[in-house]
Amino acid sequence: MTLQQRVLALFLTLLLLVLAITMVTVSQATYSHTMDRAKEQMVYARRIFQDKLQTRQKALDESARTLASEEALRQAIFADAGDRESILVALNNHRHRTSADLSFLVDLDGTVIADTADAKRQGRPFPFPELLNEEPTPTEMHVLALDGRAYQMVAVPYYVPVSAPQPSFWLILGKALDDGTARDLRDLMGVEVSVLASSAAHPDAAVLASSLGPLERGALAHAARPRGDTVELVELVGGDYLAATAPLSPGPDGGFVAVLLRPTAAALLDFRKLSGRFLIIGLAAALLAIVSAVLFSRGVTRPIRGLEEAAQRIAAGDYAAELPLEAGGEVGRLAREFAAMQRAVREREEAIQHLAFHDDLTGLPNRIHFQRALARHIELAREQHGRLAVLVLDLDRFKDINDALGHHVGDRLLMEVAGRLCRAAGDGPVDVARLGGDEFAMLLPVRALGEAREAVDAVQSTVSGAVEIEDLRVDLQASVGVSLYPDHGADPATLLKQAEVAMYVAKGRRLGAVFYESSQDRHSIERLSLVGDLRRAVEDDTLSLRFQPQMELTTGRVDAVEVLLRWNHPRLGEVSPAEFIPIAEQTGLIRDLTAWVLRRAVEQVAAWHRQGLAVVVAVNLSALDLHDPDLPGRIRELLDRNCVAAESLVLEVTESGVMAEPETARRLLDELNAMGVAISIDDFGTGYSSLSQLKRLPVQELKVDKSFVLEMERSADVRQIVRSTIEMAHSLGLRVVAEGVESVEALESLRGMGCDIVQGYYLSEPIAVAEATSWLRAAADRREARTLDAT
Amino acid sequence: MKASEWVAIGLLSSCALAGALRGATLEVKLEQQSGAPLSEAVVAAYPIDAKLPSTAPTVAIMDQRDRRFVPHILAVQTKTHVSFPNSDSVSHHVYSFSKAGRFQIYLTRGQPAKEVVFDQPGVVTLGCNLHDWMLGYILVLDTPYFVSTDSAGAARLERLPPGRYRFEVWHPRITDGAALLQRELELADASPASWTLRLSHALLVARDQRPGLSGY
Q1: How far apart are CA A102 and CA A178, in angstroms?
Q2: What is the pLDDT of residues A201-252, one digit of tens each?
Q3: E-assigned strands of A75-230?
Q4: What number of other Cβ atoms are within 10 A of residue A583's Cβ?
Q5: Cys-Cys with B3: which of A117, A613, B148, B214 at CB 3.0–4.6 Å?
Q6: DSSP-assigned letters across all residues of B150-204
Q7: First CA to last CA distance, chain B
Q8: Would you say residue A619 has pLDDT above 60?
Q9: Residue A639: is its pLDDT beyond 90?
Q10: Chosen from B175, B207, B214, B216 to mutate, greatest number of chain A CBs within 10 A
Q11: Is B209 within 8 Å of chain A by CB?
Q12: Mean pLDDT, to the nearest integer, of B180-202?
């Protein structure tokens, strides 16, 4: 049952109940009131009837007394010759005048002298001797039956002479109480009038006069009559009647009564009319109640239904749902709360959607968003037989820039790139996205491969170019990989992967932009599998160390080696650190890798020390290691465990690694330095740092990048740079190590420049432990021999 | 002439016919319900065993004087000739509708008296058609023995032949029944019998309709 139905049902039930109770109550009250009224009317009618009869009686009495005082009758009596002729004439004259129906002259002894109605009664006793009272009460009712007819009668004494104490005659007048009288009375009072004579001997009363029809009259004779003053219901042939009796005069055995009847139907006519009207009012009220109940319940539930529908629409994701805000009261408040909730949900969903599909930094769509867009474009292109170019851009050396100049610079750079890509896209139907890190993607609808090439070149030239950030000028170069729909694939994931593969190829070969070819796949698969393999290599201890000796030029002593990591991949063979170190850095594996290298290097130093070889090892740290505050503690522990002096360890950090966050790096390096560990700056000259910046760092050694050393032989400029670098380093109190020394010329040249230590193929390539041990022992032996020679 | 004188005449004539002046006596005392004496009532005696003596017709007078019947009540034996003289200076129209004697006579002023013979026993109520208030009674009795009560309500029936009698009392205003008003008594010569009668009902109201009294 819905709320509306419940409200409706409750409303209607209550209303109809109240209505029904009201109807019944009022109906009953009206009925009993009407009946009471009808009974009262019967009582009134009886009073009127009695009054009417008494008036007649009185009139009759007066008439008789008038007759008694009339000269005419006395003269007639004087004139009477015994034949009663003159007396009858006088009586009849008077009777006609007064419209009496009977008139008698009765002798004092009760003998009828004259009877105008029936001569046969003359000379016989008067039939109603009880009527002959010398002191009659004028209002006393005398109803008597004569020859089956009822009469009101009056007898007055006739005094002749008038002074006689006893009357000489009786004068008797009678007025018929017949059907006509009954009908007149009925017309006057509105009730049926009947005159009955009852006798104890006979169960049925005799109906002497009545305004009723013959059937009712017959039924009335043996119907029960109300006793006394009561008004009762009586059933006759025609139906129910209200009945009242009025005693007329007592008879010898029973007497005469008048029965007044009023059909109940007539009495209840007003009630019927009223009931009908009330029923109509009741029905109208019920109808009104139903209509108002429907309207009310609808008024209550419509806003709720509106809310319900709105809630369903919101649940379906339609936030434009209309709410019954105009509703009043609780529903209105609920609707407004609902609207607020709807707004909040929409805003949150938009935020979530934006977060889910957009990059936080640049505001560009993210990978998921791009893939969806790509799917839509593929659908579109399929329908229109078009072609799509998917571009994946990756900034070259971004990681170095990020490390060297800090994340905030990197972020600014990424935002600049995003801006440039958007400009390159222009207003055209081009989607730009940031896939992650420094990787961006673009989607270009193209018609042909040539157009694609042009577009890619345009994008690349837009992105490339110097950027100035915080007074720094950074050259931007991007590697671009391109895949084409439908040439290379038909689904977003495939196209994106292929573009990425092509991008790796471009980056690896420094080709700028590369279109995907299926042969590139192998490389990409290899690269992806390397990560897992490298992790396993660290865990399984399948990495190995190589050692490259360093020789002090002034003394010719070799008492230091640089530790280099080698990975002999079970399937791919030797993998260059240039390939797997970035992977390790990107995946966070570098920390484990560094720890592994340090542990093995220190253990090896300890082993060599035990063999009497005083060797210092130089271990490369990644720039990321400089952010590991636990590193000094771990090194301390490692050295202590192996009983190796800190002075036997040199840590090499790249110039860019230190410069990325100089403060953090310096604190860490200070700590290490305090322990006694020497710090060496690796690959010096490739970065952007100056010697003056280095001066502030706790550095003891500087390694000139091998590209300078190799170039040195061909270029006087480079030779000059190296010379200046060595001189400046010395002026800062740093010793200088030159890498990549592959010839005696180079060695001699460096010696001439005052370089402290050399390292390179001329001396030795990186060699395994056993080889290194024997090499070191031989070198020690040679030195000893030279020393012996010298001595 | 007083009523007692008329009784005396009746008695005298009876005695004369019987030839015996001596006889039995009844003393009657009549009182109203209130105890007041009732005058003008007639006491009549009817011998039960003995036959009535035959008598010659007698004469009685019912005079009209001062628009009244005088006497008011006249008791007569049947077949008595009652003379109606007119002593007034106006005429009278005397009538009776009584069964004992229906008649009407015109008594013109200054004309000789008229006679009516009453041979039926009973009460004859007299009226005057010209003077409606005039009321008189002639009590016609089938016996020669009767007397009227005096102002003290007393009456004395004398010189009756001894024997058994039925005595009756009559007055137009008495309403008591025969049980009270009739009595049988055995009368002897020597000692006079007495009958004291007290009415148990009130008298009828005197309906005196004379002018000035009732609006005529």
Answers
A1: 13
A2: 677 788 889 998 888 888 888 888 887 788 888 888 878 888 998 888 876 6
A3: 102-107, 112-115, 143-146, 149-158, 169-176, 192-199, 206-210
A4: 17
A5: B148
A6: -TTSEEEEEEEPSEEEEEEEE-TT----HHHHEEEEEE-SSSPEEEEEE-SSPPP
A7: 30
A8: yes
A9: yes
A10: B207
A11: yes
A12: 88
Between CA A508 and CA A500 the distance in angstroms is 12
Taking the Cβ of residue A78 and every Cβ of chain B, the question of whether any pair is shorter than 8 Å is answered with: yes
Model confidence at A79: pLDDT above 80? no
Bridge partner residues of A473 (DSSP): A468
Tell me what pLDDT residue B122 has. Answer: 92
Q: Report the pLDDT value the prediction gives residue A386, as an integer from 0 to 100.
A: 85
Which chain A residues are closer than 8 Å to B209 by Cβ? 161-163
> SS in 3 state form for B8-74?
HHHHHHHHHHHCCCCCEEEEEEEECCCCCECCCCEEEEEECCCCCCCCCCCEEECEEECCEEECCEE
**How many whole angstroms separate alpha carbon A469 and alpha carbon A410?**
10
Q: Tell me the angle at which helices A407-425 and A449-463 cross, rounded to the nearest 10 degrees.
A: 140
Q: Going edge to edge, which strands form the sheet with A254-263?
A: A206-210, A192-199, A254-263, A239-249, A231-236
Gap from B144 CA to chain A (nearest CA, Å) = 26
The single-letter DSSP state of residue B86 is: B
Q: Which residues make Cβ contacts (< 8 Å) with residue A504, sequence separation at least 6?
A: A479, A481, A520, A523, A524, A527
Helix axes A492-509, A521-540, angle to 10 degrees: 80
ipTM of predicted complex: 0.70
- Nearest C-alpha neighbor of B191 from the set B18, B26, B8: B26
pTM, entire model? 0.48
Interface contact B34, partner A, CB < 8 A? no
- What is the residue whose two structure tokens read 């009983």? A643
**Could you give the C-alpha distances from A468 to A417, A511, A512, A688, B89, in angstroms and in order?**
12, 25, 22, 15, 181
Asked if residue A686 has pLDDT above 70, the reply is no
Six token digits for residue A530: 């390397």
Tokens matching residue B72: 């008011």
Chain B: residue whose CA lies nearest to A69:
B132
Whether residue B67 lies within 8 A of chain A, CB to CB, comes out as no
pLDDT at A701 (0 to 100): 92
pLDDT of B4 over the 60 cut = no
Amino acid at B44: A
Maximum CA extent, chain A = 224
Please tell me the distance from the alpha carbon of residue A207 to that of residue A302, in angstroms, as a whole number.
Answer: 75
| Cα of B215 to nearest chain A Cα, Å | 13
**CB within 8 A of A192, min separation 6: which ones?**
A182, A186, A210, A211, A212, A216, A241, A260, A261, A262, A263
Name the residue of chain B whose CA is nearest to A77's CA.
B97
Q: Which residues contact A76 (CB under 8 A, 6 or more apart)?
A: A86, A87, A89, A90
Average pLDDT over residues A260-274: 83
* Total beta-carbon pairs less than 8 A apart between chain A and chain B: 54
B135 interfaces chain A, CB cutoff of 8 Å: yes
Flag if B204 and A77 touch (Cβ within 8 Å).
Answer: no
> Which of A77, A163, A169 is closest, CB to CB, to B135?
A163
DSSP per-residue string spanning A607-628: HHHHTT---EEEEE--GGGGG-
> CB of A82 within 8 Å of any CB in chain B?
no
pLDDT bracket for residue B63 (50, 70, 90): very high
Q: In Å, how far are A371, A475, A710 from A497, measured between CA atoms?
A: 11, 27, 39
User: Nearest-CA neighbor of B1 among B59, B44, B91, B62?
Assistant: B62
pLDDT score of A607 more than 90: yes
Give per-residue pLDDT as tens, B92-147.
989 888 888 888 898 888 788 889 999 899 999 998 888 888 899 999 999 999 99
Give the closest-approach CA distance of A114 to chain B in angstroms.
14
Alpha helices (H) along A150-268: 179-189, 214-221, 264-267
**Can you name the residues that pair with A207 across neighbouring β-strands?**
A196
| Any A CB within 8 A of B38 CB | no
